[in-house]
Design brief:
Length: 143
């Protein structure tokens, strides 16, 4: 059995508006079928539009997000849990002026991320280049 000792995870400045990311479970930590990520996203921050080849469960613990599927926007306030089916485009933006705290779970120890064209993207802890959301539209978000 493996245990997480609660040590600090990696931090990122700049890209995606400064956010804390921590991997609690993945293949490199000994899991076979599960990944669990924790993220804190500053106001103005985002996760770019992408998809996975497995489903993803996201639980918003604090704050509010706008879920963007490339065509529409939906705002969710904590506490909220959403199931994103495999191969469904999605991106997240912070809604409002409060930091967002969320966790994301995958039914695989090796989740993969793809951009809108199907090209592989780096895992969040390895993405040091994304600074803006290419598909974000300058239109009001629906509540």
């Amino acid at each position: 059995m493996s245990a997480d000792n609660g040590s600090s995870g990696p931090e990122s400045q700049g890209y995606r508006q400064s956010r804390y990311r921590r991997v609690h479970a993945q293949a490199a930590l000994g899991t076979r079928d599960t990944t669990l990520w924790e993220q804190r996203i500053e106001p103005g921050g985002f996760i770019p539009i992408h998809y996975h080849d497995t489903e993803e469960v996201i639980t918003v613990l604090e704050g509010a997000i706008t879920l963007n599927d490339g065509e529409s926007h939906r705002t969710l306030h904590a506490p909220a849990t959403l199931l994103i089916p495999a191969n469904e485009l999605h991106g997240i933006e912070v809604y409002g002026n409060d930091m967002v705290h969320l966790v994301a779970a995958f039914p695989t120890a090796t989740p993969r991320i793809f951009d809108v064209n199907g090209n592989p993207r780096p895992l969040p802890q390895n993405d040091l280049e994304t600074t803006r959301n290419e598909l974000e539209k300058d239109e009001p978000h629906d509540e």
